[in-house]
Amino acid sequence: MNKNPAATDKVVRSVLAKAGVLGARELAAWKRPQDDIRRLSQRDYAASLRRHLSSARVDALVRRAREVWPHFNRAVLGPPSQEFFASAADALQLHIKAARYRSLALYGFYVDRAGTMLTKPLIFVNSAHHALAIGTAFCHEVGHHFSAEVTKPKSARIRFYFDAAYSAHLRDEGELFADVVVSLAGYPKTAAGRIFTKPERRKIAQKGGLDEALIQRIRDHLGGSYGFDFSAALSPRQNLQYLAGMLHYAKLRSALLEEFDV
Ligand SMILES: [Zn+2]
């Protein structure tokens, strides 16, 4: 998985040392997940998708992802494992580093190799989380990698992913694109069509939260595919933080189906 551990470890350490400063806004938001949930419920995801992305761009993303995972958007991707990461690192020409990080606010980061000592771009994921969250972080960073393959950045840009302030992703083309990878990986088209029923789809994508029956369908899907459910072992706040992420990716998936039929 990693042919140059010393260099990647050094980069991981130096990037993590900046997380608190560069992520100050997100870390503050992480402490108030209920604010994020309220904002996300009100956001119109269909409008954000139309503003920042196109059907052609999402189709190109699916084609690129299928070069790595032929079943992408046909069956759920993951859950992540050592073997999953090893084969992804190979196919994507990446360093992938999974390690426990003390703050659960951080999901991971992506750093392009330009301007660094890395021979390949690097994805870091915080393995202190549940497998579903680890997979979410990984897919999000793969989204940044797909963008970088096209734009070929000249200087390194660190893309931190904090489990907070998701509504800011709706205003940022790069973050929204990265989140589309997550939504398609976790809710392949057939499952998405079953969970986000046709009469409800537009409403979910545009405004409002998720009703009880829908939340149950989502929980059944995530439980069956990734073994995830809200746990009594976690703090109420951590469960709310996971709920914010669930709401975000569900609304985005519904909007993708409604707007781009993907
Ligand atoms: Zn990101």
How large a portion of the residues is in β-strands, by DSSP E?
5-15%
Count the beta strands. Answer: 4
Mean pLDDT: 92
What is the element string, with H for helices and E for strands?
HHHHHHHEEEHEHHHHHH
What coarse outline follows from CA principal-axis ratios? globular
Q: How much is the radius of gyration in Å?
A: 17 Å
Largest sheet: 4 strands, mixed
Q: Which strand order spans the largest sheet, edge to edge or round the barrel?
A: 1-3-2-4
Q: Determine the number of helices (DSSP H or I, runs of at least 4 residues).
A: 14
Which residues form runs of ≥5 with pLDDT under 50? none
Can you list the ligands bound to this structure? zinc ion
Helical proportion? 55-70%
Which structural category do the helix and sheet elements fall into? Answer: alpha+beta
Q: Total domains, how many? A: 1
Gap between N and C termini = 32 Å
